[in-house]
Amino acid sequence: MVWSPSLRRFFSHPWVLGVLGILTVFVAWWLVTSSGMVDKLFLPGPGAVWLAGSDQFQQGILVADAVASVRRVFLGFMISAGLALPIGIAMGTNRTICHFLEPLMALIRYMPAPAFIPLLIIYFGLEELPKVMLIFIGTFFFNTLMIMDAVKFVPSELVETALTLGGRGLPILTRVVAPFIAPQVLDTYRINMASAWNLVIVAELVAANEGLGKRISLAQRFLRTDEIFVGLIVIGLIGLLIDLGFRFLMRRACSWAN
Amino acid sequence: MHLQVSQLSKSFGEGRDCKLVLQDISFELVSGQFMALVGSSGSGKSTVMRLIAGLERPSEGTIHLDGELVLRPGSDRGMVFQKYSLYPWLTAAQNVAFGLSLQGRGKAEIRERTSYFLDVVGLADAARLLPRELSGGMQQRVAIARALATEPKVLLLDEPFGALDLQIRESMQEFLHDLWKSTGLTALLITHDIEEALLLAGTVHIMAPRPGRIVHSVDVRLDRSDLRHLRVSQPFLELREELAVRLRSLDGSLL
Known about the structure:
heterodimer
């Protein structure tokens, strides 16, 4: 086959390939379902899923569910990120604090966050608080330890240069350590945001009045696989948007690190 | 300016792990002088510099700068490192301005001094570039400009050209020599390169390892009007060879 150079350049573009990868699965899905090989009850076609989605959208359920889940994720993650930053920096710069907290955090980090759900329900009931707390527990320790590591890898030369230029104390933290770790901190948040999304769905599967996870578990009860697919796809899309948002922020704020 | 280093010793670790890295180092440095410490790795030459910078405390002995005991780092002793010498998120101009703004100087003064010192190191055109857009030699020149901008009494150079290619190294040595001649700065240079030390420094101390100590000192009296010529001149080559033999014998005695 003869490929013109411009065509080849077009197809080697990462975005084109990425879209192509998604399209491949989509077309395979469409072929399998339209051929009638699989029971529609188990695997609904793209058209049925689209209909279920637009139906949910028109009833206002879809947006309400998405808002409920996003709010939980953002609330829990903001508390986690906001606390992890100062504590991680403190652990990375102060040996005593590090030795005091690191074993504790390393221990809790290995306790699966969903295992806290029964406790959280006993303590805080079935409202918003236990779900926000779950996201906090599931991301705080990872956030903190990863920020601590970023601080530990600040080259000593950069700090020592500031010292020999007459700097000391807080300015070293805000003007040397903070800008140096900024890209890693954003990346840490981006990575751990994914587990926050996992956890909110798990929490909603267990107990919730609304939310994307709640909708999926309701759909299971009525064997509405099309609605389960709607939930899965919407969750994936929102996650992807958040990921791209972090990447965008990183490119704008930390262009020096690229 | 008078830097007095007296009977400096430094050991790291405690008890059985205690390791003596510097033993009884003494020398003086006065205004306008260019001094070099030459030694192989493990000779503790960088430790001497870190002690003078105040980044470490000596185990024994004292360092006085203009009669005042050195206890901590300060902007009266500017330092240039071999690696990570610039802040990668700041432009060349912002790097030069960094120390000035840490000292809380006024905006107009910072701007004026920054452009002046960028000009001194010949990088006025590179003011808005990030470090990764600069060559290794340019980066070190910015680092030197940044150290000079806060008007240190002495400039401490820790293998500043150690990571550069040979050709760029040579041009940077000529640059540093010209800078020294034109500004009259006082400098202490750490290097493992005898040629570099002899080209630039009026006084060269040879250091031996384990424990680090000064074993030989030379006052270099050479005609430095043309460094390119000096590099290949007979007296220079002879002196270089003599010191090289001395350094080799120190390493040999360890085998």
